[in-house]
Each structure stands twice: as C-alpha cells, then as structure tokens.
Amino acid sequence: MSSASNTSESVPPSRIPSPIENTRPDPLHDANSSTWAARNPTRSVIRARTPPPRLSDAQKASRKVKRDQKMEKTKRLHDAVALYLDEQKSKIGSLSSAHNVTPTYINNIIGSHTKYRTTRKVQLTNALIHAKAKEMNTDQPVGSRYTLVELREMVTNDPQMKELTKDEKAGYIAALSEHREQNVTNVRGNNMAAARDVLLTTERVVKELDDLRIHTGTYATMFVVRGHINDTIQSSMHGTDNSEDFWEDVYDIPMADYLRQYEQWACTQNQMATSITIRNLHVVSLTVALTGKKNITMNYSNYETAVVETYAVRLIGWPASIKFINPSNIGTVGDIRKLRDALKARTCYWTALTPVEVKAHTAELDVRRSAGEVVRKPRKKRSDAGGSRKRKALPAAHRENKRPSKKARKMAASSSEAPKSVEFIVSSGEEEEDFEAM
Predict the structure, then answer these.
(1) Which pLDDT score, from 0 to 100, does residue 287 have?
(2) Per-residue model confidence (pLDDT) at position 48
(3) Mean pLDDT for the chain?
(4) Residue 1: pLDDT band by 50, 70, 90 thresholds?
(5) Most buried of the four, 26, 52, 60, 186, by CB within 10 Å?
(6) Residue 236's beta-bridge partner residues?
(7) pLDDT digit string (tens) for 172-197?
(8) CA 31 to chain centre
(9) Are 19 and 288 in contact (CB under 8 A)?
(10) For residue range 377-405, what is the model confidence (pLDDT) as tens digits?
(11) Which residues pair with 188 in a beta bridge?
C-alpha cells in the first residue's frame, strides 16, 4: 500500500482536518492586516490615550460646582461684551457720519486679520515641559500622571533648568522638534483611533474648503475613503457650493456612485486576495477526505438532514454569536471576519460521525418530527403547480424555424460521422480495360 493511503488511514475519523488545513501556508496571507499599524510594522505607533478613571460622587459634585461658577462667570463676560458691542456700534455710526464712509468699511478696518498662519517654532518653555513630562510621567500609571499645570510649575521651580547653557537649550528644542515630526509620520495604533483621526481631520478640511469658497469663490470636491477592507473608516465626500451637480451634469452619474467606486478601487490597491473569501466560506464544500464523495455542496437550510444525516459529518465550532446561515447572507463585515478567523484557527472544522452517532441523530430527528417540528424545510412550490405543463404545438409558420432538439442534433452528428460508401465500385476487369486503353 502506498504511503499516501497509510497517512489517510492513520487520521482518526473523529478529527479529520478541515480542507483549509491542506492549503499551502503563505506568510503574506497569515500576516496580521487588521489595522493600518499592523500593515506597517516598521513604522512607529502613536500611543493611544487611555481613558481617565471614573469619578467618585464627591468629585462629580465638586466639578459641578466649578462648572456652575464658570458658567456664571462666562455669562457676566458675555453680557459685558454685548454692552461693549452696542457702544461700539453707536460709535461706528458716529464715525461713518463724520467721515462719510459706510459702517461696513469701518468694520473691515477694525476686524481685518489674516487666516493664514505659519507653524510656530518650538519654544524653549514647551521643550522643557516636554522633557519634564517624559521624566515624570513615563512610569506613572493611568490616572496618576502629572497635569500640564503641575509640570509647568515643576519646570519653574527646577533650579537646573534655570542655568542651562546654549547647547543644552538647543538639545531640548531639538528633542521636542523630533517628537513633533515623529507624531506626523507615526501611524495610529488601532482602527478606532484611526477612524477618529480621519473624522476630526475631515471636519477641519471641510470647514477650510467652505471658508475658501466664501473668500475666493473657488470650487472644490473631496473624497475620503478607506484604504483596506479591514479599516473601519467611514467614507465621506464633500463639494463646495453646488459642486455635486458637476458629476451628474457631465458624467450623468451621482457623486455617491463615484465614492463607492473609489472605495472599491482603493481597497484593491497593492493587496493580495485573502486566502478565505466569501465564496470559500460556504464552509468549504465537503471533501472526499470526509465523505468519500465528490461535488457535495453545503445545505444550510436543511443542514441536519441533507448533510449530517445523509453524509455522517458535522461542523464543529461555528461561532455562537453568528447565525448559522449562508455566509453570503451574513450582514456585517465583523461577523464575516469572526467566521473566517475561526476557520483559519481550526476552531471551526468538519468532523466525521460514527454509526452510533448517526443513529442517535436520526432518532433525535424522529422525536422532533413526532413533536410536530418541521425538521426539513419543504421545497418551494412551482407557480404552475397542479396544472398541465405539456408543450404547446408550434404554428405551422414557425415549425421550419424551430431549433432541433438536443437528441435530434446528437443523432444527426452521429450519422454524419459514419463512413459513407462510394456510389459505384469499379471491378478488377474494368480496371484492366482502362489500363489497356491507355
């Protein structure tokens, strides 16, 4: 007996590997691609901010008192500013009459300022506070780290930071500059942080584009889509003024359709197809290794009878939080990934049943049938059930153009392939006469 047959016999029937286990391992497929940080392991990760500890009732009451005091203080300030604005409006009216100009002209002179600001250079005070924060908060647990006010006070009271040389000051400034540059090039550590970053940045860009439209009259269109199927970033689009009408007026396609196509294109760039697709997730058609039969497809509707009872196999480890249905009908990407991960980790697999287990399963089905439960889902009836389905005779005018049936074509092909005999057979005597005549 061959070695291959010995190997197949040595596998116990109670734990025959899933067909996925026979696939050739691929490091690219097995690599973690769940987040942008995981897909870029060589880049530094921005440390996620941990949530603060829960406040006690006394702390909540204390903060409420402070909040009420702050609201009262803010209200007094707003009332004072409103009074000042009324006085300013009256003064501007007097100036416009005295100098023969409009109030709007004076307001533009008073409120003129630029909206374009360059990035400020690193200040020594910020650099010292950054260094002190690294020194004091690195090993501190969450909730016990020093605040910015406390760190600033530490820097003020530290005698060593008051007697710094020029090179030491330059070193602190360079350290903070490097830290800021790293924050620009670092990646978000998880999908939630990445999605929040995209949301806040997108809102800021949208506001800038809308302001730019007001200031300069320009048109702008923005698409923001995720770059991987595992990302949880919400795709969005924005067009200033009536820019969205451009796509329907010129291309006769809504802007939202372009957004979906753009997202599909982005998710397929420079990415290999995953080893387990939705199509393969039909929990991989039952193989010869388990049933000894070929071309057995999965039946989710009648799984207990059409699969377990008929072929003596059972699927073990289906995730409890996912409904046992065709994976194509699973509504969320998260559930699809959970099922895929279970198949890859071999916690969801096929196993063969013993004859005793098959009899017990059949007896259980009989009990359920006796109790009135519908064990096997009935097939859907035809719309013309109960009626005659004989073929109607074609009109005489259409019979000539009727396509021959499959059986007729097969018979015609077989008859055309048969050897044909010649119409006249020349005898040997005739052949001799013809030769002499020559």
Answers:
(1) 52
(2) 73
(3) 77
(4) very low
(5) 186
(6) 224
(7) 999 988 888 877 778 888 888 889 99
(8) 17
(9) no
(10) 776 666 666 666 666 665 555 555 556 66
(11) 46
Are 15 and 316 within 8 A, CB to CB? Answer: no
The answer to whether 352 and 313 have CB atoms below 8 angstroms apart is yes
d(CA 316, CA 313): 10
**Helices 124-137, 166-185: inter-axial angle, 10-degree rounding:** 70
Nearest alpha-carbon partner for 234 in 243, 242, 224? 224
- Token pair 């939202």 is found at 256
Instruction: Give the chain as a 3 state SS string.
Output: CCHHHHHHHHCCHHHCCCHHHHCCCCHHHHCCCCCCCCCCCCCCEECCCCCCCCCCHHHHHHHHHHHHHHHHHHHHHHHHHHHHHHHHHHHHHHHHHHHCCCHHHHHHHHHCCCCCCCCCCCCHHHHHHHHHHHHHHCCCCCCCCCCHHHHHHHHHHCHHHHCCCHHHHHHHHHHHHHHHHHHHHCEECCHHHHHHHHHHHHHHHHHHHHHHHHHHCCCCEEEECCCCCCCCCCCEEEECCCCHHHHHHHHCCCHHHHHHHHHHHHCCCCCCCCCCCCCCCCCCCECHHHHCCCCECCCCCCHHHHHHHHHCEEEECCCCCCCCCCHHHCCCHHHHHHHHHHHHCCCCEEEECCHHHHHHHHHHHHHHHHCCCCCCCCCCCCCCCCCCCCCCCCCHHHHCCCCCCHHHHHHHHHHHHCCCCCCCCCCHHHHHHHHHHC
pLDDT in the model for residue 202: 93
Of 186-200, 267-281, 358-372, minimum mean pLDDT range: 267-281
Q: Of the candidates 231, 221, 239, which has an alpha carbon nearest to the alpha carbon of residue 266?
A: 231
